[in-house]
Amino acid sequence: MSSINLAGFIVYRISPRKPIEYLLLNNSYEHRTHWCPPKGKRNSNEDELKAAVRETFTQTELHSQDYVTDSAFRAELKYVDGIKPKQVVYFLARFVPSPTVTSHLCDSSGLKYQWCSLDQALEKVGFRSMQNILTQAEDYIEGIREEILTGNSKARWQNEGGDEKRTYRTDSKFGSEQNENGASTWRTVRDDAGGIEGRFKKMS
Predict the structure, then answer these.
(1) Less Cβ around it within 10 Å: N or C end of the chain?
(2) Quick check: 121 and 134 in contact, CB under 8 A?
(3) Residue 15 in this model has a pLDDT that exceeds 70
């Protein structure tokens, strides 16, 4: 069975002397305890970034002018929803609302949102595969925090490739998650209920 492809953004905001915060959404009608970054199904004629932009606007009403994308960080998450295999691709999006653009997040259509520190986000998303991706995103952002805050990170943003690109992969079955630059490898396992069991082992 072919996978259902989805795309989204790990939307975050950053400021001096404060923790990085991540935007999480919750479908209060169907999954009251399940929180995740904005994501949605890709159309057949869309690339990953276009799908992420469309779905983020649909779910949050954030315009593309309200954030700066960083495609140098790319995370793949594979899992099974019922009997349907799904693959989600996440990019980073730094929240920087323009004063000339009216932006607002709204709780509507059963969706709720919340800005969370990493610790709060890890508790809310629940699944270890998503927790690991958020942790890797935090490490990546912290690595360029000074560049972001001083405005010297322009060359990294909207990078479509090159040496700076890093892809992280997670498989909900026995498999590996690896930074393409070879920095780390992780192994995850599924539990009997179909979720992600709370066991991660860093592999040498």
Answers:
(1) C
(2) yes
(3) yes
